[in-house]
Amino acid sequence: MPFSFFRYPVRMTTTNTPHLSRITRLLLTFSILLWGMVGGGCIFADYQNPDFEVMSARVTQETDEGYVVTFILKGHNSNAFAIPLHTVDYALALDSKQVYSGQRITEATLPRKGSQTVRLPVPIKRGESATADAMLAAESTDADLNYRLAATFVFEVPGSIAEILFDNDIRKPTHSFASTGTLEIEPPRAAADN
Questions:
Q1: CATH architecture assignment, domain 51-193
Q2: Which of 62, 97, 182, 191 could be bridged to 67 by S-S, CB 3.0 to 4.6 A?
Q3: Sheet holding 51-62, edge to edge
């Protein structure tokens, strides 16, 4: 019997090749990611989160079933590169009662060292906010309606490794913000009379 380091002789077969290929690809991917994190400083861009502020909030549509409050946000980007905004998860509370929660594809890009407006429409069913319903029915024209808008934006930063991680749902940069204010509703019927 020939000398062997193993107790039993090892037999090489070609059936293990696909398995070795998968391990090889995994090791190669891991080494590229490791190199990108440790050695390739330019692969992950150093960035500042974008800032958002509410510019306006008003009722833009009304039907028998409900109404739409559209928030106009201004996004500010202080980076030297554009930031594509992908999705936003947002929720609206009127008079401390949550009336909407949802997700939207933003389809907007914040220009480098610039600003961009983003629209967030919020559909509200009738009956969700008695105060808003009364104001829209012109029963009460002098009341103010307090709101709280909370939003989390998912955005993409430049860099080859950052793009791979983003596309594979491994790392997606986010920025959250919240804004409170008073939504002044002018009843459409009253506005038409003036």
A1: Sandwich (2.60)
A2: 62
A3: 51-62, 66-77, 114-125
